[in-house]
């Protein structure tokens, strides 16, 4: 595809009236002149803005099936009274269709890649392989009875996924290892998972200090050690890691994350909805910690609209810090794109650069809410809506365009998810 006469968000800012040529899975050329060659369809970019695809740094994609199910509850009640009982009835088939629904929603909102923690990895990987989207996929290991790590079903499933799916679909599918959290496992499990991640050369994904209760109870259990300190001591951060939430980090925790190269997957909307708190981005960025943005699941969000996440990230940081100068649209959009790609180990994604993967999003910048333009990035961060996205491309393949999902039968997906929802609810 050749994007013609389009504004482009590059790492150096917005460039107007550009031509962006896509060859295969990559961006072949960005120039002010029409490039010589044949690139298939020509896309008229007048009044449009081309952005890098968003990268969702923390999600649980199949939980589309639980959208709106557990509401107005604190995290612990939400998990134990609503979420876990519902999930106990979900089959691999349910998870496959719910994953496809999540992929469709992500494509609608410009997300081309996600770092996900769930189960039934084979069914999930198949959904991503068929749809054309990217994923860093993991199964969140829990261990409530001190079982040996090798006896855990999640550990065996992760091993099989590494064997069967690592690097599949020209690298679109990556398999990580995940510990659900400190409070849902024991130290032997954390250490064993850390060793396995090193042995298999996998990245790591874990929930960290999402609530004050979780954070303080960890300290009480482990001689004053915070979750970040505990996980670092267990060796979990010796592999490249994404730590989701990190709302209640203490001063030393930021130093640990910087020293270990851990990325924070901040989920502002979910944290606000569950009244978990607000991640301290000021301190993280001051300490040199890489910060990416995630949606969490639609059970606690309740959508996968990354532009909303960008806006909430900016507003929550300013409002709760009392500093209106804290964070810029450039920083927030970096967190929603390039930072997430780096956290996934995808060095050639997350930016509109020649030679990078063609993970691209087109935003309608001619709408009334986007005019006038004093600074296009300010409009994107504070005025644009996810519904303003008109095209999403991953590795040069169009996943969404003007209400159409070329890689999936969206009506069948919605039908199957509704069927799964009814069956599970009837069983509860």
Give Rg in angstroms. 21 Å
Strand segment tally: 17
The helicity comes to 25-40%
- Give average pLDDT, whole number: 97
Task: Let me know the largest β-sheet.
Answer: 9 strands, parallel
Low-pLDDT segments = none
Gross morphology: globular
Structural class: alpha/beta
- Terminal-residue CA separation: 49 Å
Count of helical segments? 15
Strand content is 15-25%
Summarize the structure in short:
By secondary structure, the protein is α/β, with parallel strands linked by helices. The chain is built from 15 helices and 17 strands. The strands form two sheets. Strands 6, 7, 8, 9, 10, 11, 12, 13 and 14 form a nine-stranded parallel beta sheet that branches.
Q: How would you describe the overall organization of this protein?
A:
The structure is a single chain. Strand 16 (389-394) and strand 17 form a beta hairpin. Helix content is 38%, strand content 22%. The strands form two sheets. Strands 6, 7, 8, 9, 10, 11, 12, 13 and 14 form a nine-stranded parallel beta sheet that branches. Strands 1, 2, 3, 4, 5, 15, 16 and 17 form an eight-stranded mixed beta sheet that branches. It has 15 helices and 17 strands.
Task: Label this structure with key terms.
22% strand, 38% helix, 15 helices, 8-stranded mixed β-sheet, single chain, 9-stranded parallel β-sheet, 428 residues, alpha/beta
